[in-house]
Each structure stands twice: as C-alpha cells, then as structure tokens.
Specification:
Elements: H1 2-7, E1 21-28, H2 32-45, E2 50-53, E3 58-68, E4 71-78, E5 81-85, E6 96-104, E7 107-111, E8 114-118, E9 123-127, E10 132-136, E11 139-147, H3 148-154, E12 163-166, H4 173-185, H5 192-212, H6 222-240, H7 248-255, H8 259-267, H9 273-290, H10 298-304, H11 310-321, H12 325-331
Antiparallel strand pairs: 1-3, 2-5, 3-4, 4-11, 5-10, 6-9, 6-11, 7-8, 7-10, 9-12
Helix pairs in contact: 4-5, 5-6, 9-10, 9-11
Length: about 325
C-alpha cells in the first residue's frame, strides 16, 4: 500500500505531503493575463486545462490543495468559468480519476457523449485519460484526484470506470465529505501511516459511493460498505482520541453519522464506541510508556491520550494489561 501511494504521489515539489498550498487568482474576467497566470499554476500543481470565464466582471479562483498519502484533495471557490481538458492537455503517464463534489452552485461535466448537470450534494467521477469539460455557475466544490490503480486495488470492479454521476442522497458520500473536511481543516503535519489510512479510506468511500449507483458491482455490497465504514470510524478515533470531551455525540458530528448508526456499526464487531475509544487510548498510552527514551510521567501520558484523571487511567490500564503503568515501565528499564 505505501509503495503504491509513494509511486503515484504528485511530482511537484510545491505539493509536499500534508502541506496546504493555495492556488489563487483575482482580477477582471477580461484580463487574460490574470486568468492565464492562474491557469498555469493550476496546471502545474493539479491538472492541465484551459480556463475560460463565462461571465463578465470579476474573475476569482481559489483552491486550497493538500496531498494526503498520494491522494490530492482540493477545496475550490470559483467565479463562473469553464475548465476544458482537451486532447492536448492529456499526459500519457497520467491515468488518474477526479472526483468532484458540488458544495455550492451548480456544475456541468461533459466527457465524450456523456453529460452530468448537478448541484450541491451531488458528484461526478471523471477520467484523466479522456478529454472532458467542467463548468461551474460559480460557487464551490471539493475535488479529489487519485491514481486509478489505487481505486482498482480496493474495488477491482471499478478498474476501468471513466465516468459516473453520483446523485443526491448517496449513502457513502456524506461520510466521504466528513473525511475530506478533516483533511482540509488539518494544518498539522500528518504522520505517514495516518496519511495512508486517510488516503485508503477516502478511496474506499469513493468506491462505495460509485458502487451505490452501480448496484451490480460485487465489491460494493452492503456488507463491504459497512466494513469500510467501521474501519473509517477507527481511523477517526485514532485522530481524535486525545480529546477528553470526545463523547459519542461529539464524535458523530465529526464523522457525519448518527450516534445510533455508529453504535450499530461497532456492535457488528461486538464492541461499542466507548469500549473502542478506551482501548485506543490505552494502546496509545502503552506505546508511550514503552517507548525507549521516554521520560514523560505516567500522569502526563494519561492526560495526553485523553483520560481525565489518573486513577481511572490506572484502573483501566491494569484491567487491560494485568499490570500497572509503572510496572510496565519498570519492565522496560525506565523510571517514573
């Protein structure tokens, strides 16, 4: 998995993994130099295309771009424009997919004889190996660019997909957007293993999103989608476990699911949200206690992983590992 992501990461040094990059353009729509400057930067960092404003007045194009585990995620706010990827913009070495989700305004996508017009809460999957056009009436959308090989690795039935319009109410799209929101809001450097998990789960959600509109795809069965969601919930716990106020209602708001749905998903693994959160915190604490060279106090570690008081932590730790935190540290040769 890591090798695949590393091989397919964007080549531009400006798009360092985990670092946010702004691609902005402001000016008069009639000023071709402003438009072309933004178009050039957009082509260098994201994807080659020809940009044409479709309305007179002010040209405004803003994209916040971040690469996570080899998957490029961008949040766009654009004035009315058309972005045309003709045959001359295609790269022989680029076999990727773009997944665009409207958040405000309307989008129209055309690829060959196929056209999709949609508004907020709908999406389209396009192929970079085909000429296509994306037109916006002005507003915002989320764009995700990922290697086709990555999607094919988790959903072989989608290996040759080139175009798919995803309608409103898709069951996996909301969870995907919650993941994307966590990515674009995160300004801190993301550890490689976490970044790869994010990339994998975003890809799984895209596969499930597409599969909901292609019910014959065996890989996108209901049980497979629920397994993806359970794995995604664990990744979200890994990211937010240190928050001492992380109850199920707060967590539900983070992942974009109801508390009832979360409990039902965990019940399929014969556990609960609170049990999984406690287990995650204890495991993070165990790793910190046994880490060579660590001199942090037991209390500091307990608070850092999300426990509110040391006595609760000590009791839970002993039940989980049949020894106290101090005894485990002593076994490793480290002092309190």
């Amino acid at each position: 998995m890591g090798a695949l992501l590393e091989e397919t990461a964007p080549e531009s040094a400006d798009l360092a993994p985990g670092r946010h990059t702004a691609v902005t353009g402001e000016g008069d729509a009639a000023d071709r130099s402003t438009v072309e400057t933004w178009q050039k930067r957009f082509a260098e960092l994201i994807i080659p295309c020809a940009v044409r404003p479709t309305r007179s007045g002010r040209f405004s194009a803003n994209a916040d771009v971040v690469v996570v585990g080899g998957v490029l995620v961008a949040r766009y706010v654009l004035s009315p424009m058309k972005m045309d990827r003709g045959e001359d913009h295609r790269r022989a070495t680029d076999d990727s997919l773009t997944f665009s989700v409207a958040t405000a305004g309307k989008l129209r996508c055309t690829q060959g004889a196929r056209t999709a017009e949609f508004g907020a809460g709908e999406a389209v999957l396009l192929s970079t190996r085909s000429a296509n056009t994306l037109e916006t009436t002005g507003g915002g959308f989320i764009g995700i660019k990922l290697p086709r090989a990555l999607l094919a690795s988790c959903a072989p039935a989608h290996a040759d997909i080139d175009f798919c319009h995803i309608g409103a109410g898709n069951p996996a799209l909301r969870s995907l957007l919650a993941y994307v929101d966590a990515v674009v809001r995160n300004e801190a450097e993301m550890p490689q293993v976490v970044a790869q998990l994010f990339a994998r789960h975003m890809t799984d959600f895209i596969a499930a999103t597409v599969g909901a509109d292609r019910p014959a795809a065996e890989d996108d069965s209901r049980s497979a989608r629920r397994a993806v969601r359970r794995a995604a919930l664990q990744t979200a716990i890994d990211l937010h476990h240190a928050d001492p106020d992380l109850g199920i209602e707060r967590f539900a708001g983070i992942v974009g699911l109801s508390a009832r749905t979360i409990q039902a998903l965990f019940a399929e693994d014969e556990t609960s949200f609170s049990d999984r959160l406690r287990e995650t915190r204890l495991e993070k604490a165990r790793q910190a206690i046994q880490r060579a060279g660590s001199h942090a106090s037991i209390a500091t570690i307990a608070f850092e992983v999300g426990f509110r008081d040391i006595s609760t932590f000590n009791r839970a730790f002993r039940r989980a590992y049949d020894r106290t935190p101090g005894e485990m540290r002593a076994e490793g040769g480290w002092n309190h």
